[in-house]
Amino acid sequence: MKAKQEWKQQLTILIISFLGGYFGLDRFYRGEVALGVIKLITCGGFGVWYLVDVAIAAYRFGQVSQS
C-alpha cells in the first residue's frame, strides 16, 4: 500500500512541476516555501531551475515506478 501512495505522490509532484514549475508551485507543494518564493520571483530561475526540477521529478517518478 505504501508503494502505491509513494507512486501517487511522485506523480503529483511531476505534474505540478511540469505545469506550475515556473511559478514555484512544486516547491510550495513540498513545503519549501522560501525556495518557492525565490523560484516565483525569478520565473523558475529563468527557466533553468524549472528544467532541473522537472528532470529531478521525472527521475524520482521513474525510480518509484520501477520498484
Helix and strand arrangement:
Layout: H1 2-20, H2 25-30, H3 33-41, H4 43-46, H5 48-66
Span between termini: 13 Å
Structural class call reads: mainly alpha
Percentage of β-strand residues: under 5%
The Cα radius of gyration reads: 12 Å
How many domain units? 1
Describe the structure.
The structure is a single chain. The protein has five helices and no strands. Helix 1 (2-20) packs antiparallel against helix 5 (48-66). With 67 residues, the chain is mainly α. Helix content is 85%, strand content 0%. The protein has helices at residues 2-20, 25-30, 33-41, 43-46, 48-66.
List keywords for this structure.
mainly alpha, 67 residues, elongated
How would you concisely characterize the structure shown here?
The protein is mainly alpha-helical and 67 residues long. It has helices at 2-20, 25-30, 33-41, 43-46, 48-66.
